[in-house]
Amino acid sequence: MASGDDILKRYSLEGFLQRHVFNSKTLSMTDLEIGCRQFEELEPRDSMYRVSTFLVREWWNEPARLVEALSVLLLVWNSNFYRFGGGGFNEQTLENCLRNNQPLINRFRDRDISSLSEVDHADIQKLFIALSEALKRKKDGVESPVSAGKTLHLLAPNFFPLWDQYIAPAYQCPYQYELACIAYIGFSQRMRDLIAPLRVELAREQSPRKEWLSKKTLLKRIDEYNYVTFTLPSLAQQRSRRRGQGSKAD
Fold it and tell me: CA dist 58 to 51, 97, 129, 158, 180, Å?
């Protein structure tokens, strides 16, 4: 039988990273640009991100209206999750969560992911768990690590990264059968390390693409690259399998 210390280690960040070893990858500015331009060509829902980001800024100190700003994005970008369960999430619960955690959220609001360190882990874990609970589906109580990550990003767009069920495993940070809050901390660290050389390269850049890429946060640009590199191909494979299964049934 596993001891208490063994269990704690298994579900700690240390244990998670030992189980999910990741060989750090590099991303060139050229590949980032290609991915982001492809994203803007293929993803019409990005307008919802701009609207939601604007509304979060405008309504920052108004938790009730901040819920509306977050809902603009969550109920579009994560529509399949909420439509499947029906009824969306409880807006009053999310408002209470934002109000109760406002001082902690404020501490992350203007920070950059480059400043992420071990001292932040407990606070990130607390926020992730609180938001996951607040954003669970009303009908069946299922939580969404994706919604929690998207919300954290909207609240602190330079500090918290976005992820989904296809992007997370690509960086050896799967959250299924793991503590999602721990997986998210590991993912954040890997995004911090991925961005560091890109930031240096972008600072040296003297070209029109620097201005274009800088219209959004680097974390958003990385998410766009990840989406076209990992999410879209996975979704295409799923559709292909479903079509194949349908043909066999016929």
Answer: 11, 19, 26, 17, 30
The pLDDT averaged over each successive group of 10 residues in the chain (250 residues) is 52 93 90 96 86 94 94 84 79 97 96 97 97 94 95 97 97 95 98 95 89 94 97 90 63
3-class state of residue 114 by DSSP = helix
- If one counts every other C-beta atom within 10 angstroms of the C-beta of residue 159, the result is 24
In a domain, 87, yes or no: yes
For 123, residues 6+ apart whose C-beta sits below 8 A from its C-beta are: 104, 107, 108
Record the pTM: 0.91
- In a domain, residue 4? The reply is no
Four-CA torsion 216, 220, 222, 223, nearest 10 degrees: -150
Q: Is residue 3 situated within a structural domain? A: no
Range(s) of the domain holding residue 111: 13-238
